[in-house]
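Subject: Interface between my chains keeps coming out wrong

I've been trying for a while to get a sensible model of this assembly. When I model each chain on its own everything looks fine, but I need the whole thing in one frame so I can look at the contacts. Pasting all components below, labels as-is. Any help appreciated, I'm running out of ideas.
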Amino acid sequence: MHNHYGNNKYSSFGSGSFAKHTAINIKFDLDLVEPFKHNAFGTLQEMFDDVYDFLAEEYKDTDVTVRKQKVSVGVSFPIEEGDEKPVELDVVPGRELNDGDYLKSNDLNLYFNEDHWGFKKGTNQKTNIQKQIDHIKGKSSEREIIRLLKIWKKHKDKKYKSFVIELAVIRALDGYSGDMDLWSRLKFVMEYLRDHIADNSFHLYDPGNSNNDVIAAMSDYDRQAFKSDMFIMLNNIDSNPDYYLPFYFEINEQFSEYKEKESGAPYPTSTKRFG
Amino acid sequence: MTSDKVTKLIEAVSRIDIVDGFTINENDVLSGKIKVNTCEDGTVLEWNVIIEPCYPFKVMGVEPIRFINKDLVNYLHIMEGGSLCMHPAEYDNAEDQFIHDLEQLKEWVDKYYIKGKKDKHYEHLVVNHNPIRGQYYTYCFAETQDEFEDEDFGQVYYTSLVQGLKNEKIMINFVVQKFTSHKRIKKKVNTCLISQAYLNNESFSGIYCLLKGAPSVHNKFLIKDFDSLSKLFTQNQKDFIHAFEEIYRNKLKYFPLFCGYRLPNGEIHWQAMVLFMDDLPIESFRVGTGRNRVWHTDFKSGTIPWVQTENISYKHFFGRGAMPQILADKKILIMGIGAIGSIVAETLTRGGAKRITVYDIDDKEPGNVCRSAYKFYSGVSEKSYDMVVFLRQISPHVECDSLRSVVDFVVKSYAAENKDMQYIAELFNDYDIIFDCTTDNQLMKVLDASGTTAQLVNLSITNHAQDLVCAFSPKITETVRFVYTMLHRDAESDLYNPTGCWNPTFKASYNDIASKVQFALKHIIRMLSNQEHICSFYVTEDDTNLKINRT
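Reply #2:
Try treating it as a single job with all components included. I did that and got this:
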């Protein structure tokens, strides 16, 4: 990208979970922001399409797949020996708002390739990814809780946005003065989410664009579902923590302190489960 | 009730006076005449009153008191003989009941006679169902895929249902399949919106005519005689009856003549009569002279042999209650139709499901009947065949088929040799929702791993139907394993060993299972209709309650 676009763009930088220190596995997808100069393209769509065309051309005749995503171009590298999943690289093209102002403001316009956050295909939105990263910088206590909720989200295949979880956790723990052990903080956050996420007056603004309320982009159904998830988890953990804590927040076997790998619980045999 | 008591009670009610005193006949029936003051220009309405000896008990669905005024038959809620149609609240004793009945009479006078109020809902024409040549007939019909032209006519095709019984006489039941218009030279088929199973059955033929208006008297009662009905037919329609007779005279003993009319909401209602070939109520007459002389057909005088018709269009068939439309429209696969799966299949069908596919590798045996939705009557059969027939019998609106049992072999042998489950996903992506009631752990794992776009719902119970476990995709295997480990039920002892079968099964009655399955389905239906957040759960039971535990 650097060689191809030369002076038309500024230095790329990592965003996403790695940059924010909220990754939940040793292997994770990399998000790479590519800030373009304002005069590099006529329109944001041209920018998006050009980046896609370039990457598609670059990786043609290889096993790498390149596809258009919501705001990024996804580059998927094939599984290598010893890997569980392919390496995914999401390239997020952004364009500065006015000639030369990126270095001062870090503001970028992103192109929306499909419906997202209530915006239709072809529209764009201003954001400031640097501010988003700064927002979470130094918040190691919050990051621990964010990682736990992201582990839950991943293992239970919940579709809520990681960004919502990040902002909500930071909001919940803002001014927190309770016990600092992990469960006390997690419980406090879950109770906060249970009590606020579906509330009409609850908003979470994107630190990169204070006009963007990420809660407003969630459907009422999803907000109720999130509230209900928190309610159910809290009740179940309260009634049977030994069973439910590892069920919701599964231990990553790679980092488990138990070196001896367990054979795993057997499936219920047919005499146990009936229909 | 005695005449003295009745007289005394009437005297105490305002605006009502006695015209002819009450007397009692040899059958203990009290009768008399009263008048109700309308308070309008001194107008009074006179009513004959008949009180049955069983008063205030309502016997065989008939009210034990009647207020009759034949001159008011034009008004709403006055029946053919002039009696007021009433559905009074019930009181503990005859005196209170009588006072209330009189008040209701006054209420009718104020509302419908004085104020001329119209009801919001449409009242269908009152049809008296009489046997024709010693048998009753009922024709069920549904809305059609296309609209009818005005004054349309042609042939109606229908098929048989099983016979019933009414008033100790046979009830012959039919369901209409399609209408073929003969109004224009090119015939046009208009199929009823019912399942293919009924459309493909053997057909019989009759006639339909869309009338110029409703065949009604006072907008309430069905016309009884052919003389009054005749003017609602066009001449082409009447001539078609004769043409039909010419073709079918030796092929049919009788046929229905469907008379259609539009209801205020635009819907077409069909009222049928049954006509016998050996006594057709039609005659020919000649018009014109010389070369222009032609023969036409008209009805002979006489009473119309009306029979019963029932509108079974989806909205009427499921009018009393159905699951949300968003779910009814989904394409559903039910894998494993044992105790749980068969109850799920039956419940969804009664709830208005439109497309169900079932799958099982087993046969249904008499021993299955006691706790599943099967019937002994159909003997031994493949479960999937038996269930398809059963579901079609329940609803004329479910398109139902089955997957061949070899699917089990195909899916598992593919899964054994391939890591990429895309092929299996594609096989199941055809469905919106898959209920897995097989309790087959390997199938569960393959389905789970396939990443199919269908919403998977896995259902199973523990021995004695102590608990029911319902897991939704994704991560079904993990959830099921987790819940069963947590419940930790003793599953090895007290099982039932069927005759000649090596595989012991669980013990539980139909009621044990169905009560939990229905309770679970109540939530599953809400979840699949976006009315409740989708969440795996298990149902437990204590001495007083069933409880849903969400995970």
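Reply #3:
Confirming on my end. Chain A touches chain B at residues 155-157, 221, 224-225, 228-229, 232, 236, 240, 243, 247, 265, 267-275 (CB under 8 Å).
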